[in-house]
């Protein structure tokens, strides 16, 4: 009964979305306050109905209702509760319902917190957001219905993909979707601004927090996915340049560019046209990611579905909204005249350079991801574009970005004295060079990647610290740091996090040690500075799997420092094995152990890695996210919204 009510709520939400996408838009065009006012309650009702549908599906998974086809295909009665819940979105249909739930949530939040917006702009934003929802409601109801019943319910289910039965991946999709779908509200703001033919500082102030929130969620989602791949897949890496990894990374790059571009619109009313284009493209690449994950166009361990017919439906949604928005942009971009004028040496110019680097690097990733498909379709040639291409083509852009970031942060708005900014950064530059020399001297015969990574990280971090210190004034009154706006602290924290991630990636890639051997029980072996010994291999039974678990002792200078249990699991229902790496996490390095198959001589295949600075990658990502959260709590957003609300009478468009 509950699932039938959920299905009915989903259909009602679809109908409400149709009304919300038409009535407020007509009301804004005709300046009819009553019609525009429909948008706010409709957005709330649409979200509540979708939330009920999602809750009904969750209830079916939690209670193991195998009369529901989706539950039968993706759950099992013996599965732990956390994976019964995560099984709701661990499949195509359920994940699309989560997508639409988040889409309607952002629409409802725009209605709840957007009362300071001009009524016409708010109505158009909510109408465009609902139009996107209409398309995805139709996609779910007509091609991917999660509430389909089985005529004869089976006794038990087929279980969830074992790779998805992990805490990291249980939370990875929701955060990623909050980022993906969060960019839809930026898209709605952009299209609404194009319809109105006006972008001003207030528009930039409203778009910026939405972009920031989406970027924060994307950062957390990507970091969780990277961490999951690191410890779960057993191959020892954190990033493979997989097509689906790239699909989430491309919107992140464009969202970062949009975030910095919106600052220029807010502060100087410049880069209006470019900012609108970035908002369209950022959500457009989110739709491209959805298409890649669900169409079967590109093979990936992360893919949700392999269904070309449903992929065509998503492709039509992508072409309609992205193509329609770009067409509207082509007609109305000339109306986005920039008011602010700035010199070549200015913070505006630095932010333009930032935008160009991020946008071009996104294009490089896109070309590398899609080129195998293009080559096969048009040239009948099978190609594989892997990590070597991306590392060579993408890394130089990040190096340039790291070099420019501290200098750009120090420049003044409109016109700046470059020599003054450089003079302030000299101590940080000297420190960075000294660290480069130190690490170059310490390493023997290895690449320049590690020392250069240390230099860039120190340069970026010292630039952020110097920028904060400069805000204490000429008296260097450090107590003024406590009174700085949270957005300043957020920017510094995010830049420091970026630097820490850079040194983590460089250190791991440059100084990692790897050992693959057949390990005999009771025979120690050396990997780098550490001694490892496989002492036993046991057969262990889990809640819904059988495990071959090794006991590994790790010693340093003769003393035991860790006891690790690498596993190789087999899930009998899904008939699929998984590898569970055992990792000794430390501040400066990880020891990473994977156990393989038994050998004829009685030994076991073991892979061991010593991974320097591995945890710094995710620590830096968390700091970047924390910086975004700090900026979101800046009181200037609340004060500006309140002032706007008081200055704009209800029902009267703001000029």
TrEMBL record:
Molecular-function GO terms, alphabetical: heme binding; heme transmembrane transporter activity; lyase activity
UniProt feature coiled coil, ranges: none
Assigned GO CC terms: plasma membrane
Cellular location(s): Cell inner membrane
GO biological process: cytochrome complex assembly
Keywords assigned by UniProt, alphabetized: Cell inner membrane, Cell membrane, Cytochrome c-type biogenesis, Lyase, Membrane, Transmembrane, Transmembrane helix
Domain Cytochrome c assembly protein positions: 89-296
Function: Required for the biogenesis of c-type cytochromes. Possible subunit of a heme lyase.
Protein name according to UniProt: Heme lyase CcmF/NrfE family subunit
Naturally occurring in which organism (per UniProt): Marivita cryptomonadis
């Amino acid at each position: 009964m509950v699932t039938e009510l959920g299905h009915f709520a989903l259909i009602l939400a679809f109908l409400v979305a149709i009304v919300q996408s038409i009535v407020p838009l007509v009301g804004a065009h005709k300046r009819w306050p009553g019609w525009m006012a429909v948008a706010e309650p409709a957005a709330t009702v649409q979200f509540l109905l979708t939330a009920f549908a999602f809750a009904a599906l969750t209830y079916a998974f939690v209670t193991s209702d195998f009369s529901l086809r989706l539950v039968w295909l993706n759950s099992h009665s013996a599965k732990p509760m956390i994976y019964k819940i995560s099984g709701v979105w661990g499949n195509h249909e359920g994940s699309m319902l989560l997508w639409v739930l988040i889409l309607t949530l952002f629409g409802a939040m725009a209605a709840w917190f957007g009362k300071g917006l001009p009524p016409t702009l708010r109505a158009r934003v909510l109408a465009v957001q609902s139009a996107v929802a209409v398309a995805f409601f139709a996609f779910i109801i007509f091609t991917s219905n999660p509430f389909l019943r089985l005529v004869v319910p089976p006794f038990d289910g087929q279980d969830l993909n074992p790779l998805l039965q992990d805490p990291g991946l249980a939370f990875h999709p929701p955060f990623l979707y909050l980022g993906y779908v969060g960019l839809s509200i930026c898209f709605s703001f952009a299209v609404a601004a194009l319809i109105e033919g006006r972008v001003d500082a207030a528009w930039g102030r409203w778009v910026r927090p939405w972009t920031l929130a989406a970027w924060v969620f994307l950062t957390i989602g990507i970091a969780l996915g990277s961490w999951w791949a690191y410890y779960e897949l057993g191959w020892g890496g954190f990033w493979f340049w997989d097509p689906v990894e790239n699909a989430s990374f491309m919107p992140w790059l464009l969202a970062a560019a949009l975030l910095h571009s919106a600052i220029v619109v807010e502060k100087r009313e410049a880069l209006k046209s470019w900012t609108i284009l970035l908002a369209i493209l950022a959500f457009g690449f989110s739709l491209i990611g959805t298409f890649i994950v669900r169409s079967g166009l590109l093979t990936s361990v992360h893919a949700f579905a392999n269904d070309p017919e449903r992929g065509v439906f998503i492709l039509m949604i992508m072409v309609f909204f992205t193509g329609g928005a770009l067409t509207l942009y082509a007609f109305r971009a000339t109306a986005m005249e920039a008011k602010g004028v700035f010199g070549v040496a200015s913070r505006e110019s630095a932010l333009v350079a930032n935008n160009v680097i991020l946008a071009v690097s996104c294009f490089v990733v896109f070309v590398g991801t899609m080129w195998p498909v293009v080559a096969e379709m048009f040239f009948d040639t099978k190609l594989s574009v892997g990590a070597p291409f991306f590392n060579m083509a993408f890394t130089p852009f990040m190096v340039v970005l790291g070099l420019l970031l501290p200098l750009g942060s120090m420049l003044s708005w409109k016109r700046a004295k470059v020599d003054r900014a450089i003079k302030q950064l000299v101590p940080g530059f000297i420190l960075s060079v000294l660290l480069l020399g130190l690490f170059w001297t310490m390493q023997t015969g290895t690449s320049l990647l590690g020392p250069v990574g240390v230099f860039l990280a120190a340069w970026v971090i010292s630039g952020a610290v110097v920028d904060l210190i400069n805000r204490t004034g000429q008296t260097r009154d450090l107590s003024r740091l406590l009174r700085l706006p949270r957005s300043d602290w957020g920017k510094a924290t995010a830049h420091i996090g970026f630097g820490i991630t850079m040194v983590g990636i460089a250190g791991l890639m440059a100084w990692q040690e790897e050992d693959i051997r057949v390990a005999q029980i009771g025979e120690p072996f050396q990997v780098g500075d550490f001694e490892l010994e496989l002492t036993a291999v046991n057969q262990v039974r889990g809640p819904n799997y059988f495990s071959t678990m090794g006991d590994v002792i790790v010693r340093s200078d003769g003393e035991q420092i860790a006891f690790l249990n690498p596993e190789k699991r087999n899930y009998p229902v899904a008939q699929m094995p998984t590898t569970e790496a055992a990792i000794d996490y430390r501040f400066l390095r990880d020891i990473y152990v994977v156990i393989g198959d038994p050998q004829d001589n009685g030994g076991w295949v073991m892979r061991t890695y010593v991974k320097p600075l591995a945890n710094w990658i995710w620590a830096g990502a968390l700091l970047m996210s924390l910086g975004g959260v700090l900026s979101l709590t800046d009181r200037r957003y609340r004060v500006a919204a309140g002032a706007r609300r008081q200055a704009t009478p209800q029902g009267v468009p703001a000029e």
